[in-house]
TrEMBL record:
GO terms for biological process: cholesterol metabolic process; lipid transport. It comes from Pygocentrus nattereri (Red-bellied piranha). This is Vigilin. Transmembrane segments: none annotated. GO terms for molecular function: mRNA binding.
């Protein structure tokens, strides 16, 4: 049997610790040449072999085998048990729901609760078999649940002496739980204060019997114990029968002959009297026959009762006191922060003490300044003296420093600074947490590091005393704008105020508080800066809503968004238009108030140009405004819809302004004004409101075509009737407003109409089958329109192909009559329908149709005709081939030549409808044929009229709805052709000539702006004139409105700067540049030697340090590039006196920083020992002989000891063994 062992330094030390003292001595002496081989361990002792086969139970077991003594038989932890529930004891007996219903739910719940697996099956006798699998405790719990929840329960009682109840319960109730699991029953034992001795058991019949038997056995066992004790006392009782009566007899006997003594023993010493698992009490009872009663742990009593024969009580009392005083509890005062140093790294210090005094228990309580010791008195005293000595040594050392600081709460937030101090000085800094309510800060580490850390912390505390925290109230909607995209804007603020910490609340908190923390003066500056920024944002967030008719939104936007973009840029506002599919007409403008008003006026001006829009103001007392607007704007909305969509604007509530603005087409504005004043007059006199209900499908019929029906009611009664809009929730509610008499009369008329509509009738009419298709075409669009207009009347036509003329109408009587009348009109129109042709050249068809066929649709609606355009002729198609004739005969029919005067098919537009309507439609179509005029525009202005990528000419074409044709550049012509409707041409011509005037004025201005001026400046000053990121030159350009051009790299005249603009502006810009040059010429540059090791600290994080120096002394400091010949050379440029001050400051900084550099380098020299020292220590240690054993296999046989350094005997894991010799021909191939 061979074995492999890996020997490490730790296992070697462990092995040595288990040897006898003389063996240890021999091991130590082994370092010399003389080694006592008899004291060496044998190979089998050091490396016991594994057993070759399992030992039989009958055979002898080898005691000395270290491996076999630890082997234990393995058993499965999963068990399976089957429980049977008879039919009469089943709780759920519904045979139809096996595997489902409440029984299945209970089983699933048991499996989830216990972790066991349940399988149910039904026996022939309808009994239930349950197989439970799982771990033992899970199976027992599942069994108990099954019995209590799936099986009917029975109950029984068993009476045993009251003093035996505690044995049934057991320690911590363990015995009782075991009994309940074992018998699958519920056992209820009366409380100690209950005199009853009856124990109640509930469960199955089988379980009841088993539980009763087990309880009686426990009671009988206690009676037997009493009998034995009684016989040992005096021998008078010889025969005692088992049972309850006998138990009482024994108890009475003991009570008559026993004496009781009560003594006081400290509560902390009770456990020593009890002993482990009560062994000490049992020992006292065995030796003296006296029982010792200890109060329970949860009781505060310290009284111990001894019960027994008088002559034995003295001995028992002596033993009790001896046991109580054999152990003692003591404490050592030690600050809680010292506890970890007393324990030592990985418990080394404490381990030394506990090894010497293993019986002493040492307890450290977190947060308490004491250490508790417990154990034998002498041992405790020795341990106490050792720990006190350790505490004294630790307190005296200068490795620890403590001081109180009132700003502890602020220091907790400076985690980065504290961590830097820790890392820099190699110390530990402990700041008490919030819950300690302490100001004591402790620093631990080497003496020098502790002193330096203390100094830095005190400096930090003094700076923090001047620190201020301020809360700014900024609306959360501005937080994102202040932070900026990817935090760019807040970064600029933080760079401007680097010493101020700015904290924004979490967006989810919906808080407006922004916290600023830092030096008092910096916080105040930052606060003012941010307040100014917020004020600008508030000013720029003014919002105005402008109502613009939906049809004009496209004109506001312009071609490719040109108009709206221009308004946005010129007014510096944000303009939002509603979506195309939205019913809203409101355009929202956001920005500064003045800019919003300017944008609003420009948008309204566009609308006014496009349509005959007028605006009037009506004076109505402000107290009536809310009543005129109505609930959710119902009243005012009804007026706006009735008057062709005019816009009525009421002033803000509470403003006290009486003026109400009405805007829209002139006729509609007058109509709305009249209705608004009428409604206001009614409200002022005696307004009355009434409500009535009607089905939504009746509303259109009640309103009538063009509002005719409702207008009749309004004119006859004087009341105003408001129908619900699509947005209203209640679609049946109709509101009547006016004087009481008018409302009553209107209500009466409407109710009569609604009542008649509820009277459903069925009527018939005859319609020629040739017209049926017109009504049912396009998915019955005509029928749908009839139903909507006439109160939901239903029209039914006969089936296709039946040739029946009978058409059925069903609905309200009035609605049916009106629909019938309308259908007769339609049939009459269809009978009187004619077809007419209108010849218009195909090239004008697209123009006539208009955008998306809008113009042609308008003519169709206005004249109630059908218009059909011909198919477009392909102008690129080749002419039809001439028919080939053979022998002078044609292959087909001879076609007569077409009449040249006849119109082309592609030019003929066909109209269908009544004759007079078709004639009017033809006139309307001909009026849409575009006309062309010519306008003279100088050729050099053509490119400006066209604009960039044609944007200018497209804008004019969209604005005036014409086509503008500019001649090709090679023609050099001044004539521009304008084609469009005659009504549009005059406006287009005026617009074009106006644009020519603007361009001529721009040309003159451009000539004035092209004045050029050249200034000579030494190239070395160019970067200074440009400034950082072009800041200075940009400011000059903006301030003087000029263009400044610096020479290119390859330019001959590198000193020439060109200025272009108005003459006076160019001269002013030249003077500004000359002033900068004059100032730069006064400056000097000086080089100084500044140790390169301090450059980084002088520059600072992200250049903050050097920027501060340059701003303070108004100089420019240049450091050498990496790889420069002289890395210490630094150049300072500026005014002479400023340069001198800056140099002095830099040299002072160098002196200060060099002290730190030298100190750090000296520390590093100690931290990194030289390689020679390490090598010499290895040599002094000498070669190690390793671990030597006797009777090893290689010494008792011919085998050779393995070579530990051989890679063949001991190959590395995962690494191939190197070949002994490489072949010059490469690796072998097999």
């Amino acid at each position: 049997m061979s074995s492999v062992a890996v020997l490490t330094q730790e296992s070697f030390n462990e092995h040595r610790s288990g040897l006898l003292p003389e063996q240890v001595g021999a091991g130590v002496a082994g370092s010399s040449d003389a080694v006592d081989e008899d004291n060496l361990p044998t190979y089998k002792d050091a490396f016991p072999p594994l057993p070759e086969k399992a030992m039989s139970s009958e055979g002898p077991q080898e005691a000395g085998n270290a491996w076999t003594s630890k082997i234990r038989p393995l058993r499965s932890s999963i068990i399976t048990q089957v429980f049977h529930v008879p039919l009469e004891e089943r709780k759920y007996k519904d045979m139809n729901q096996f595997g489902e219903g409440d029984q299945a739910k209970v089983c699933v719940d048991i499996m989830q609760k216990t972790g066991a697996h349940l399988e149910l099956s039904m026996a022939k006798d309808q009994g239930l078999s349950i197989m439970v699998s799982g771990k033992l405790d899970a199976v027992m719990k599942a069994r108990k649940e099954i019995v209590s929840r799936l099986q009917t329960q029975a109950s029984a009682t068993v009476a045993i002496p009251k003093e035996h109840h505690r044995f049934v319960i057991g320690k911590n109730g363990e015995k009782l739980q075991e009994l309940e699991l074992k018998t699958a029953t519920k056992i209820q034992i009366p409380r100690p204060d209950d005199p009853s001795n009856h124990i109640k058991i509930s469960g199955t019949k089988e379980g009841l019997e088993k539980a009763k038997h087990e309880i009686l056995l426990i009671s009988a066992e206690q009676v037997e114990n009493f009998k034995v004790n009684a016989n040992n006392c005096d021998g008078h009782l010889c025969v005692i029968a088992l049972g309850v009566d006998v138990s009482h007899a024994i108890f009475s006997f003991q009570k008559r002959n026993a004496t009781t003594i009560a003594v006081e023993v400290k509560k902390s010493q009770h456990k020593y009297v009890i002993g482990p698992k009560g062994n000490t009490l049992q020992e006292i009872l065995d030796r003296t026959g006296v029982s010792v009663e200890i109060p329970p742990p949860d009781s505060s009593s310290e009284t111990v009762i001894l019960r027994g024969e008088p002559d034995r009580l003295g001995q028992a009392l002596t033993e009790v006191y001896a046991k109580a005083n054999s152990y003692t509890v003591s404490s050592v005062s030690a600050p809680s922060w010292l506890h970890r140093f007393i324990i030592g790294k990985k418990g080394q210090n404490l381990a030394k003490i506990t090894q010497q005094m293993p019986k002493v228990h040492i307890e450290f309580t977190e947060g308490e300044d004491k250490i508790t010791l417990e154990g034998p008195t002498k041992d405790v005293q020795m341990v106490q003296s050792q720990i006190e000595a350790i505490v004294t040594d630790l307190v005296k050392t200068d490795k620890f420093y403590q001081f109180e600081l009132s700003l502890v709460s602020k220091l907790r937030g400076r985690v980065v600074v504290i961590n830097r101090i820790k890392d820099q000085h190699k110390v530990s800094v402990r700041i008490p947490p919030d819950n300690e309510k302490s100001n004591l800060i402790r620093i631990e580490g080497d003496p020098q590091g502790v002193q330096e850390a203390k100094k830095e912390l005190l400096e930090l505390a003094s700076r923090m005393e001047n620190e201020r925290t301020k809360d700014m109230i900024i609306e959360q909607r501005f937080h994102r704008a202040i932070i900026g995209q990817k935090g760019e804007k807040i970064k600029e603020i933080r760079d401007k105020f680097p010493e101020v910490i700015i904290n924004f609340p979490d967006p989810a908190q919906k808080s407006d508080i922004v916290q600023l923390r830092g030096p008092r003066t910096e916080v105040e500056k930052c606060t003012k800066f941010m307040q100014k920024m917020v004020a600008e944002m508030v000013e720029n967030s003014h919002s105005v809503s402008v109502p613009i008719f939906k049809q004009f939104h496209k004109n506001i936007i312009g071609k490719g968004g040109a108009n709206i973009k221009k308004i946005r840029e010129e007014t510096n506002t944000k303009i939002d238009l509603p979506a195309e599919n939205s019913n809203s007409e409101m355009i929202v403008i956001t920005g500064k108030k003045a800019n919003c008003e300017a944008a609003r006026n420009r948008i309204l001006a566009i609308q006014k140009e496009l349509a005959n829009i007028m605006e009037v103001e009506v004076s109505i007392p402000s107290k009536l405004h809310n009543s005129l607007i109505g609930s959710k704007g119902r009243f005012v909305r009804s007026i706006m819809e009735e008057c062709g969509g005019v816009h009525i604007h009421f002033p803000t509530e509470g403003s006290g302004i009486d003026a109400v603005t009405i805007r829209g087409p002139a006729e509609e504005v007058e109509k709305a004004k009249k209705q608004l004043l009428s409604l206001a007059e009614e409200k002022q006199t005696k307004s009355h409101t009434a409500e009535l209900r009607a089905k939504p499908e009746y509303h259109k019929f009640l309103i009538g075509k063009g509002g005719g029906n409702i207008r009749k009611v309004r004119d006859s009664t004087g009341a105003r009737i408001i129908f619900p809009t699509a947005e209203d929730k209640d679609q049946e509610l109709i509101t009547v407003i006016g004087t009481e008499e008018a409302v009553a009369e209107a209500q009466k008329e409407l109710e009569a109409l609604i009542k008649s509509l509820d009277n459903v009738v069925e009527d018939f009419m005859s319609v020629d089958p040739k017209h049926h298709r017109y009504f049912v075409a396009r998915r019955g669009q005509v029928l749908r329109e009839l139903a909507e207009e006439y109160g939901g009347v239903m029209v039914s036509f006969p089936r296709t192909g039946s040739q029946s003329e009978k058409v059925t109408l069903k609905g309200a009587k009035d609605c049916v009559e009106a629909a019938k009348k309308r259908m007769f009109e339609i049939v009459e129109d269809l009978d009187a329908q004619v077809t007419m042709e209108c010849v218009i050249p195909q090239k004008f068809h697209r123009s006539i149709m208009g955008p998306k066929g809008a113009r042609i649709q308008q003519i169709t609606r206005d004249h109630n005709v059908q218009i059909k355009f011909p198919e477009r002729e392909d102008l690129q198609a080749p002419p039809a081939e001439t028919q080939v004739q053979e022998n002078g005969e044609s292959n087909g029919e001879i076609k007569e030549p077409a009449d040249p005067a006849a119109p082309k098919k592609c030019d003929v537009i066909v109209l269908s409808g009544r004759k007079e309507r078709c004639e009017a439609a033809v006139e309307a179509l001909k009026a849409l044929v575009p006309v062309t005029i010519e306008v003279e525009v100088p050729f050099e202005l053509h490119r400006y009229i066209i604009g960039q990528k044609g944007s200018g000419i497209r804008k004019m074409m969209d604005e005036f709805e014409v086509n503008i044709q500019v001649p090709a550049p090679e023609l050099q012509s001044d004539i521009i052709s304008v084609t469009g409707l005659a009504t549009h041409l005059d406006r287009a011509k005026e617009g074009l000539l106006e644009r020519v005037k603007e361009l001529q004025a721009e040309q003159e201005d451009r000539a004035l702006r092209s004045f050029k001026l050249t200034i000579t400046v030494d190239p070395k000053y160019h970067p200074k004139i440009i400034g950082r990121k072009g800041a200075i030159i940009t400011q000059i350009r903006t301030e003087h409105d000029v263009n400044i051009q610096f020479p290119e790299k390859n330019d001959e005249n590198q000193d020439q700067i060109t200025i272009t603009g108005y003459e006076q502006n160019a001269v002013a810009a030249r003077d500004a540049i000359q002033a900068i040059v004059d100032e730069l010429e006064e400056m000097i540059s000086e080089d100084i030697n500044l140790d390169s090791r301090v450059h980084a600290r002088v520059i600072g994080a992200r250049g903050k340090g050097i920027r501060k120096i340059m701003d303070e002394f108004k100089v420019d400091v240049r450091f050498p590039q990496s790889g420069a010949a002289d890395p210490n050379l630094v150049t300072v440029t500026g005014l002479p006196e400023m340069v001198d001050e800056a140099i002095d400051h830099l040299l002072n900084l160098e002196e200060e920083y060099m002290a730190d550099v030298v100190e750090n380098e000296s520390k590093m020299a100690y931290m990194k020992p030289s390689g020679t020292a390490a090598a010499s220590s290895e040599e002094a240690r000498g070669p190690s002989k390793g671990f030597v054993v006797r009777e090893a296999p290689w010494t008792t046989s011919s085998e050779k000891a393995p070579d530990m350094s051989s890679s063949e005997d001991f190959p590395s894991f995962g690494a191939p063994v190197a070949a002994a010799r490489a072949s010059p021909w490469g690796p072998k191939r097999f």
